[in-house]
Amino acid sequence: MNLPKKYILTIVTVLAVTMFFGCESNFKEVQKSNFSEFVPGSDADTVNIKYTDSGRITGVLVSSKMLDYSNLDFPFTEFPKGIDVTLYDKNLKRTFIRSNYAISYKPTGIIDLQGKVKITSETGQMLETEQLYFDQKNEWFYTERKFKLTDAKGVSYGQGIDFSKDFKVINSQRITGELEAEE
C-alpha cells in the first residue's frame, strides 16, 4: 500500500513542477507581447517651424525641445520645455502665444498649452491662465480654468473662457473685475 502512495506523490510532484515551469515561460512570453516601448520617433533641440498656407506664413513655432511621437497609434508632438508661437491672420496681424509646456494631438488638431500660458494680440489684449486649449481647425481657444484678461477696457478675471485667435469674439464665464462701459 505504501508503494502506490510513493508513485502517486512522485507523479503529482512531477506534474506540479512541469506546470509551474510551463506557466512561467508562457507568462514571460505574454508580458513581452503586451510590452511596447514609449519612446519618441524623433527628438529635436532648438526648433523653429514655419507653418504656411498657399505660400503665406500662418504661424511660427519656436521651442528648445520637441519630442515627436508620430510612431504611436494616437500620434502627438510634445514640447516639454515650452513654446513661443506667433500666429498670423490674413491681414498679417499677429497673435503671440507663450507657455511652459505644450502637446499637440495630430488626429484631433488640438494643442494643449500648460504652465503660465500668455496670449497677446497686436492690439494689446492679453490673456493669462494656467491651461488653455487651441483648436487649430477652427482657430479657437478655450479653457475652464481661471484666467486674467487685460484689454483697453480694463482687467477682468474669471473662470472659463473661449475666444477667436484674434480676440474679436470672446465668450467668458463667471467674470469679475472693473470694465469700462461703452455709452
Automatic annotation (TrEMBL):
InterPro entries: LipoPS_assembly_LptC-rel, LptC. It comes from the Bacteria. Signal peptide: none annotated. Pfam families: LptC. This is LPS export ABC transporter periplasmic protein LptC.
